[in-house]
Specification:
The structure holds two protein chains of two kinds. By secondary structure, chain A is mainly alpha-helical. Chain A has helices at 8-31, 44-64, 76-96, 98-109, 120-141, and strands at residues 3-4, 69-70. In chain A, 65% of the residues lie in helices and 3% in strands. Classes of the chains: A mainly alpha, B mainly alpha.
Chain lengths: 153, 506
């Protein structure tokens, strides 16, 4: 990984924090009642926090301009796969019940792992184990009610 | 002295609560899970407690707290098993143990190392519990006189201290704390009914769920970063009970370090921002400093495992002191403990001791039970944990994901929680990339609403007078300490930078 002349990671994160703080401050200022210093409204605390974040964001980003750093790429692939797996779960659960949801969750998430660890046998065994485990702990153990397999269509 | 009569009374309340069959079971479950999680590298206590958080809704508050606490201090026992046997510590607080533990294992003395670890951990934990029993009532007596101004200032100090004392960039830490505070404001404001940051979503009226934040930041984000982890090569070592017995020399060498480590750990456990990990490092450094022959360290010196293990367990216990007596958490995990209680309607703090002595003393007594159970689990039953070290992560993480998804669904009974988890999971993932600490965010998220409440109340009582925070003696002192801490951090930062520049120029 090459070192660059500026610490871009910190510049980016500082900028994001700054923008976030500005947004919070703007929201509180326009949409909430700030009130006066002596009679504080609901907007005062968020506005103060937002202002602090603008300052802190700058404090993180500015020194980074004069600092070297390495810009590594985040592991987008793993994140995307895991998110997809969980989104699939979230969509499937109310429609089709928990077993289909867990099947999708487990099998999609397996793609995030290292390729040499994947196999049909692992997928099947894990899926069975996960379903059994969830049913045991949540339904039997804690009495949580959910549809095992539902049909929404 | 009447104090002792009180303590005896409290102990009996505590014993009664702690020995109830339900609480005994959850204590066992907690320490068992804790050791399990501690042994496995790749899942830390914070992630585990986050994942089991939803389960606590179904339990009585005391049982829930006992279980979560059991997991917390249980990991300190289990983490060292992996550290000693495979040189990969199961928890950060056991990292130091591998320095001398692994060499001992290579010399064929793994059994002895494990034994001494268990005993030192027990002694450290016991001393921590004793301190908690003795000092909590005293602290509470003073704390009952605190008003909102004092609490606000204490929380500010706690947050600033947590950011400046712990590792990593202090500015990033405090930034994340404030971000957490912002997330804490989401929801309907109780005083005015104004909707803050809810974007029309009814589900956000009560605020963002703590469970979802914790599961996302620490559960999901952890899975995303670990999912491509190298499978560990573990060589199975057979550890028999007989091989664990230390010789007299070992015992003699371990006694003083254990006590010293317990002292270091007890102290640093109570401070915000420092926890078992730092305590363990400091105890190790101290031992090396006072040792007659420091060169033995790193090659299998029993002092090198006795001290840090005693320290991390003592710190685990004393961390509960400010959390339970003042309601001020020193770390993200303690914030979760407070969160667990608050969700059940109990506010930790001085009033908790008088209103719900069964919760407080039941917890304290359960610490004793837990530590004894851990001793049993980690000496005779250590073989189980050894075998556990062979479970590869790629089989584990789908189960973890399932736990997260079903857990949050069960806790909130709607799918909305899951979307929140995914949001914070992605956020946590990006934060790790940017080296922005997630623990600080959680701390701010839990403390933010409390701070705002105290601030507004203090202002209401003082009728809009800001000076009240400085005029009231306790509050003023606390804020002065905070200011000093900030100045010190800035000075230390510039001194570090100047040294770096001097070194570069040279």
């Amino acid at each position: 990984m090459a070192t660059q002349s500026r610490d871009y990671k910190d510049i980016i994160s500082g900028a994001v924090v700054l923008l976030f703080g500005a947004y919070v401050l703007g929201y509180a200022w326009t949409r909430l009642d700030i009130g006066t210093l002596t009679q504080m409204g609901p907007g005062m605390f968020p506005a103060g926090a937002g202002a602090l974040l603008v300052a802190f964001g700058a404090a993180i980003a500015l020194p980074a301009f004069r600092r070297t750093g390495t810009l590594t790429m985040p592991d987008w692939r793993s994140a995307a796969i895991i998110v997809a797996a969980m989104v699939a779960f979230g969509i499937t659960l109310p429609l089709f019940g928990i077993i289909p949801a867990l099947v999708l969750l487990t099998n999609i998430s397996l793609f995030a792992g290292r390729p040499e660890t994947r196999s049909l046998l692992t997928s099947v065994l894990l899926t069975v184990f996960v379903c059994a485990f969830v049913i045991l702990v949540f339904r039997v153990g804690l009495g949580l009610r959910f549809e095992l397999i539902g049909w929404a269509l | 002295m009447d104090m002792f009569g009180d303590i005896a009374g409290n102990i009996s309340i505590g014993m009664e609560t702690a020995f109830s069959p339900t609480n005994l079971w959850y204590c066992f479950l907690g320490v068992f899970l804790g050791t399990f999680i501690g042994t496995l590298p790749g899942i830390g206590p914070l992630a585990a407690i986050s994942m089991l958080f939803p389960i606590t809704f179904y339990l009585e508050p005391t049982a829930a707290l006992i279980m979560l606490a059991g997991i917390w201090y249980g990991t300190a026992y289990g983490g060292s098993t992996a550290a000693i046997l495979i040189n990969v510590p199961g928890t950060a607080s056991s990292a130091v143990t591998s320095l001398d533990g692994y060499p001992l294992a290579r010399q064929g003395r793994a059994g002895v190392a494990l034994f001494i670890t268990a005993i030192s951990s027990f002694v450290g934990g016991s001393i921590g519990i004793l301190l908690m029993m003795l000092f909590s009532p005293i602290i509470v007596v003073y704390a009952l006189k605190f008003g909102s101004a004092e609490y606000f200032s204490l929380m500010v100090l706690g947050l600033v201290a947590a950011s400046s004392i712990s590792d990593g960039s202090a500015i990033k830490s405090i930034t994340m704390t404030v971000v957490g505070i912002v997330f804490g404001t989401v929801g309907m404001d109780i005083y005015t009914g104004a909707e803050r940051f809810t974007f029309g979503l009814l589900e956000l009226d009560e605020g963002i769920s703590l469970v979802a934040v914790a599961l996302g930041l620490f559960g999901m984000a952890e899975v995303i970063s670990s999912v491509r982890m190298d499978p560990l090569s573990t060589s199975q070592r057979k550890v028999t009970l007989r091989s664990m017995v230390p010789n007299r020399d070992d015992i003699k060498r371990s006694t003083a370090p254990t006590l010293r480590g317990a002292g270091v750990g007890s102290f640093f456990g109570t401070l915000p921002g420092t926890g078992p990990t730092i305590a363990a490092f400091l105890a190790y450094a101290l031992e090396k400093r006072v040792a007659k022959d420091p060169s033995r360290f790193g090659k299998g010196a029993v002092e090198g495992i006795a001290a840090p293990e005693a320290a991390n367990n003592a710190a685990d216990q004393t961390a509960f002191i400010p959390t339970m007596t003042l309601g001020i958490p020193g770390s993200a995990t303690m914030a979760l403990m407070i969160g667990a209680l608050m969700i059940q309607g109990i506010t930790p703090g001085p009033s908790m001791m008088t209103e719900r002595p069964d919760v407080f003393w039941g917890l304290v007594m359960s610490f004793w039970i837990g530590n004894v159970l851990l001793l049993i689990l980690n000496i005779p039953l250590v073989g189980i944990w050894v075998r556990l070290l062979t479970v590869p992560y790629h089989l584990l993480y789908p189960v973890i994901l399932a736990l997260i998804c079903v857990g949050v669904y069960g806790a909130s009974n709607s799918i909305f929680g899951l979307w929140v988890v995914i949001f914070f999971g992605v956020l946590g993932f990006l934060m790790r990339w940017a080296s922005l600490p997630a623990a600080s965010l959680l701390l701010g998220f839990v403390l933010g609403p409390l701070m705002e409440q105290h601030f507004r109340r203090a202002m209401a009582i003082s009728r809009g007078d800001y000076m009240t925070f400085i005029e009231r003696p306790v509050s003023g002192t606390v804020l002065a300490i905070t200011a000093l801490l900030i100045l010190f951090s800035i000075w230390a930062y510039y001194r570090g930078r100047k040294r770096g520049e001097d070194a570069e120029a040279a």
